[in-house]
Amino acid sequence: MTEQTLLRTQVDGDIATLTMDRPDKRNAVNDALIDALDAFFARPPDGVNAVILCGAGDHFCAGLDLAEHEHRAPIEGVHHSRNWHRVTELIEFGGLPVVSVLHGAVIGGGLEIATATHVRVAEAGVRFQLPEGRRGIFVGGGATVRVGRILGPDRMREMMLTGRSYGADEGLALGLAHYSVGAGEGMALARDLARKIADNAPFSNYLMINALPRVADMSRGDGLFTESLATAMAQTSDGAREGLRAFLEKRPPRFR
Ligand code: 1HE
What number is the average pLDDT over the span 110-118? Predict the structure, then answer.
C-alpha cells in the first residue's frame, strides 16, 4: 500500500483534511504511515493555513503497529522512538495549526499523535488509553513529555500502571481534549474551528503554536523577555497592519 492511501489528503481552499486510512487495522501506525505524516508536515501544500487530522472507520488510531514491532536492538529502539519524536515535533511546531477529531481508540501512539495537535475535539465513545504496560513496552512517541505535561506525571503514571481509559468528558476535564461532542459531531466542529484559525494572521498563529510551549519551558524572566520579542515582531508585521486597519474600518481582516 502506498503512503498516499494510508494517509488520505484532501485540500479544500486553505484547509487540508488528513485521514489516517487503515481502518481494517484500526489505523495502527506502521512505518509507512509515520513516513506519510512526515512527508505531509515537512512539505505541506502551498496555501494551506490549517489542517484537520482524523481517522477512517470507527477509531482515530490504535497506536503503534504492534505487528511491525519485531524484536529490536536497544539502539534501533532509540532510533525508532526518535523518529516518532521528529515527526510529532513537526506536527506540533511545524507552524500549521492542526485540529484533531478523536473518536474510538486514541490509544498509545494514537494519543501521542493526538497530543501533538493543537485543538482536540473528542467524540462520545472515545477511549484515551496508554496500554503499553500490558504489551511489555513503554511510551516512545512523546507521551512522557506531552501527555505528562497535560495530565501531570502523577496522573499519567496511574493511567499507565492501571491501563485505565478516559472518555470524552473526562478527557475534556483533564485537558486531553478541548471539546467534547456527540458521536459523529466532531468533524463539523473541527471544520468550524479550522476556519476560524485559518482566518487569523498566519504569523500570530505561528507565534501561538511556537512561543507558548517554549515559554512554558523557560524561566519566568526568559519567558517574559521572549514574549516581548514575539510581540514586537508581531506588531511590526503586515498582519498587524491589516488587522488593526480592518478593525478601524469596521470590516473583517484579509490576511492573505
Ligand atoms: C492492530 C493494532 C495495533 C488493532 N497494531 N494491529 N496499541 C494497542 O495496544 C491497541 C491494540 N488494539 C486494540 O486494543 C483494539 O484493536 C482496539 C480497541 C483498538 C479495537 O478493537 P476491535 O475489536 O475493534 O478490533 P480488533 O479485532 O482488536 O483489531 C482489528 C484488526 O486490527 C486486527 O487485525 P486482524 O488482521 O486480526 O483483522 C488487529 O490485530 C489489528 N490491530 N490494533 C497492529 N496497534 C511510539 S510508541 C507507541 C506505543 C504504542 O502505541 S503501544 C499501544 C499499541
Answer: 98
pLDDT recorded at residue 5: 82
Domain-wise residue ranges, the chain? 3-198, 202-248
CATH of region 3-198: 3.90.226.10
CA-angle at 68, arms to 63 and 39, nearest 5°? 65
User: What element of type H or E holds 179?
Assistant: strand 179-181
Closest residue to atom 29 of ligand 1, CA basis: 25
Are 106 and 150 spatial neighbours (Cβ–Cβ below 8 Å)? no
Task: Assign 102 a pLDDT band (cuts: 50, 70, 90).
Answer: very high
pTM > 0.90: yes
| Residue 28 Cα to ligand 1 middle (Å) | 6
Q: What CATH number should be reported for the domain whose range is 202-248?
A: 1.10.12.10
| Pocket lined around ligand 1, Cβ cut-off 6 Å | 25-26, 28, 59, 62-67, 84, 105, 107-109, 112, 131-132, 135, 137, 139-141
